[in-house]
Amino acid sequence: MNQAASQRNLSTIRWLTFLMFMMFAMTTDSVGVIIPEVIRQFHLSMTVAGAFHYATMSGIAFAGFFLGYLADKLGRKKTIILGLVLFALSSYLFAAGRSFPFFLTLLLASGIAIGIFKTGALALIGDITKSTTEHTSTMNTVEGFFAVGAIIGPAIVTRLLQAGTSWKWLYIFAATLCVILILTAWSVRYPQTAVASETVSLKRTFGMMKNPYALGFSGAIFLYVAVESAVYVWMPTLLASDRASTGFVAAYAISIFFVLRAAGRFVGSWMLAKLNWAAVTTLFSLAIFACFLCSMVLGIRTAAYLLPLSGLFMSVLYPTINSKGISCFRKAEHGTVAGVILFFTCGAAVVGPLAMGAISDRLGNPKYGFVLATGFAGLLFAALLWNWITHPTRAILQALDATEYHRD
Asked: How far apart are CA 52 and CA 62, in angstroms?
């Protein structure tokens, strides 16, 4: 393949990766809009209705941990196509759904599918970048497209409900887009994957759990996702508890949050290529903590402004923490470590909102769930401040930059 063809192929792979993240975000980040409708349709409590979110995240967590190694074993292309096919099938089946348990089953299956192709895509980023810094910048761009999908999905659901049409059509639309991505993934030529020196298996995933870098970044990811999911899962419910105070702002709060998160990630792609990542993540986590703390102290009217604003500061945290965690390992291990971090990502996306919903149900007000989320935000800031002060990963990132990446 000549250089021009190689560049076109690489560009196609990048756009395929961007659109994959956008496509599945359309469904996963729409739950905050869908849950109130599900509560009315099936007469559920907040805790039970939250399973609409928990089922998908549980499936992703399962696939991340138990199937993440497939990206290193089967290769990126086969893993991505396998996940996309499963996602398309499970999404199309929403058209036949009539019961809450049936929908939960499909959400679990789609979560497993996302976990499979997402670990393949995350591992692929290492194959198409030339340094750990470029890896972080690219990851922010990828998550920027995820954030765009998180804007499109809720907008589609809102429009469907306003027109008196079922929210299920969101999944049909996503499945159709997925079919296009499958055809593209099948036709494109992927870069050669680094080969691991040892046997790639589930045993290596369990061994990864003992690695301090994998555990450290996974712990930071857990705290971040618990905070972020508080906003997109429960903020609509929190603001709805006092419509007299929030009114017009509440109707657009979730959209504002997603728009700011998307814009911040594209800006973050540029920012992280030039600035110290540890400093940026520390300062942004402090701003998030301040938004949550002031929201709890000053009341729901203030929360209607500050919680959406927190999306701007959240924008760079997940892709940067995720990228640095993956970059602490050889490229041949990127699929496995991406799966481990993804497991903690989705574990937090289940445990965080579940705990918030349970506390809110018990104490009779969704505000109490956000008090818990504020605690998570404080712990995240403390962890990132320690990372900025001590720089525990500087040596290994520099070493892998020299041995794993090529600057041609």
From this structure: 16
Is 400 in contact with 220 (CB distance < 8 Å)? no
Spatial neighbors of 179 by CB under 8 A, at least 6 apart, are: 88
Q: Which two tokens stand for residue 243?
A: 């419509």
Above pLDDT 90, what percent of the chain? 52
Dihedral sign for Cα atoms in the order 115, 117, 121, 127: positive
Residue in the block written with tokens 């070493």: 399
Phi first, then psi: what are they for 146, rounded to 5°?
A: -60, -45
Domain at 3-190+200-404: CATH architecture: Up-down Bundle (1.20)
H or E element, residue 351: helix 334-363
Any idea which of 141-155, 195-209, 300-314, 366-380 has the lowest mean pLDDT? Answer: 195-209
What is the reported pLDDT for 278? 95
List CB contacts of 47: < 8 A, sequence separation 6 or more.
354, 357, 358, 361
Domain borders along the chain are 3-190+200-404
pLDDT in tens, 222-267: 999 999 989 977 888 888 777 656 666 777 788 888 889 888 888 8
Write the DSSP assignment of 374-390 as a string of letters: HHHHHHHHHHHHHHHHH
Encoded tokens for 272: 């992280």
Residue 145: is it exposed, middle or buried by C-beta count within 10 angstroms (0-12/13-18/19+)? buried
Q: List the one residue out of 266, 288, 259, 280 whose CA is nearest residue 324.
A: 280
The model's pTM is 0.85
